[in-house]
Amino acid sequence: MENSSPAAFPALSPELMGLLRCPVDGAPLVHASTGSALSCTRAAHSAQWRGGILDFSPAPGTHAFEGWVAWTYDLLLSRVLLRRFAVRRQVLERLHERAVKAARGGLLLDGPCGTAVLSAPWLLEAGLRAYVGVDLALPMLQRAQRRLRMCPTLLVRGDLCALPLAEGTADVALCSLGLQFIRDRAMALRALRRALRPGGLCLGAAPALGLFDGYDRRHATRPDPDFPLTASTFASELVEAGFRDVTLSTEGALILWEATASS
Ligand SMILES: C[S@@+](CC[C@H](N)C(=O)[O-])C[C@H]1O[C@@H](n2cnc3c(N)ncnc32)[C@H](O)[C@@H]1O
Ligand SMILES: [Zn+2]
Question: What ranges in the chain are assigned the alpha helix state H?
């Protein structure tokens, strides 16, 4: 991993520090003796602060949310993505509202958080103990950081499949419009389950094939297709990953789900 930079070391409460884990091997992290990095207590893994965002330098994803995509994401969501999925904005807004309210007094993991455009409106009054937003793309996180400057948050550049949180620490995990970018979905679902306490809630939305023709057609002709959900098996995938009481609904190409982490 990279060396630490002399960037400012934002205050990380001892409580949050205790909840973080090395995403490579799950070991506790400590403040590094040099520079501004955190370091792993087991091996030579480290993280560094990039302008207040904790960066674990994850491997790049299959789809880049960098450059103009990050800068225009909020507009793209309204003008392109919602139409592409044939979903009403208020359906996604309700999902985010429900996740934030369900996490009241606890820790909300938002992964991938993107620019936090849909979660931000609820966060200021949310009464959360902590909000941890995880995303692969630094520019998306930087947009989220600007948007969330009034809220106590921890923004982390990391991979949904290797979350830097100790087991059982999140009360709610929100996964909005992210699973379709992940080749190994079972790994991501297990990572979300691991981060949740038993009884914790996982909520999310992602596109599936076979629900909306427009999405299916586009998917079939894309040079870099996503990894959409399979509507007929997704509930059992959640159960296999360690969830129970799975509820699914659909709108347009999206499956929306809610599931409880099993004991
Ligand atoms: C369509 S955006 C969704 C953002 C936000 N949840 C929302 O609903 O607006 C997808 C995000 O997933 C992130 N992403 C893709 N693969 C990822 C991975 N393996 N781990 C973490 N984030 C990932 C991208 O960087 C991007 O910001
Ligand atoms: Zn480590």
Answer: 14-19, 67-76, 82-85, 89-102, 120-123, 138-147, 185-195, 213-221, 234-240
- Domain extent for 240: 67-261
Q: pLDDT for 40-72, tens place per residue?
A: 999 989 999 999 999 999 998 878 899 999 999
Give distance in angstroms: CA of 59 to centre of ligand 2. 15
Query: Residue 250: its pLDDT value, please?
Result: 98
For residue 262, give both structure tokens. 């099993």
Within 6 Å (CB) of ligand 1, which residues are found? 61, 65, 77, 112-114, 117-118, 134-137, 140, 159-161, 176-178, 181-182
Q: How far is the CA of 25 from the centre of ligand 2 (A)?
A: 5
Q: Candidates 134, 181, 202: which one to mutate for ligand 1, based on the most atoms within 8 Å of Cβ? A: 181
| Dihedral sign (CA 94, 97, 102, 107) | positive
Distance 36 CA to ligand 2 centre (A): 17
Do 109 and 21 have their domain in common? no
pLDDT digits (tens, 9 = 90+) for 66-123: 999 999 999 999 999 999 999 999 999 999 999 999 999 999 999 999 999 999 999 9
CATH number at residue 130: 3.40.50.150
How far is residue 217's CA from residue 234's CA, in Å, rounded to a whole number? 21
Q: Are residues 115 and 240 in the same domain?
A: yes
Residues 62, 158: Cα–Cα separation, whole Å: 14
